[in-house]
Amino acid sequence: MSMDRIERWMATLRTEWPFKLRLRVWPIVIILLFLACIVTAGLVVATTHMTRMQYAELQQLEQEKNQLQTEWGQLLLEEGAWSTPARVEQIATERLEMRIPDVNDVEVIRP
């Protein structure tokens, strides 16, 4: 009797197998598509967050760059001011007590 049952079961499987398999595959396909949508949505959120963080960092770096350029410009101006003849003359007068000689103090020597 068990052989008879097995043969009936095999016959049933042969006649119903493709149809039943297709019905059982659809729920799996739907679940996989749903999971793919969830994973994709998570990746979109993560990518958006990373993009915003990198944009904030870019803005901070640009601000630092602008500050450094301003400081560089100020240093160039100071360098130019330090090397002017008026500045050199002022330092010579104040620190070294040098002065331009008067006409009476000048002596011309001829060969």
UniProtKB/TrEMBL annotation:
Q: Where in the cell is it found?
A: Cell inner membrane; Cell membrane
The main location class comes to membrane
Q: Which Pfam families match?
A: FtsL
Q: Which UniProt keywords apply?
A: Cell cycle, Cell division, Cell inner membrane, Cell membrane, Coiled coil, Membrane, Transmembrane, Transmembrane helix
* TM annotation in the entry: 25-46
What's the superkingdom here?
Bacteria
The signal peptide annotation in the UniProt record is none
Query: Which residue windows are coiled coil?
Result: 51-78
Q: Which biological processes are named by the entry's GO terms?
A: FtsZ-dependent cytokinesis
InterPro entries for this protein: Cell_div_FtsL (IPR011922)
* Statement: the UniProt record of this protein carries the keyword Membrane: yes
**One Gene Ontology cellular component annotation?**
plasma membrane
Family to which the UniProt record says this protein belongs: Belongs to the FtsL family.
- How does the annotation summarize its subunit structure? Part of a complex composed of FtsB, FtsL and FtsQ.
What's its job? Essential cell division protein. May link together the upstream cell division proteins, which are predominantly cytoplasmic, with the downstream cell division proteins, which are predominantly periplasmic.
Q: What is this protein called?
A: Cell division protein FtsL
Name the source organism.
Vreelandella alkaliphila
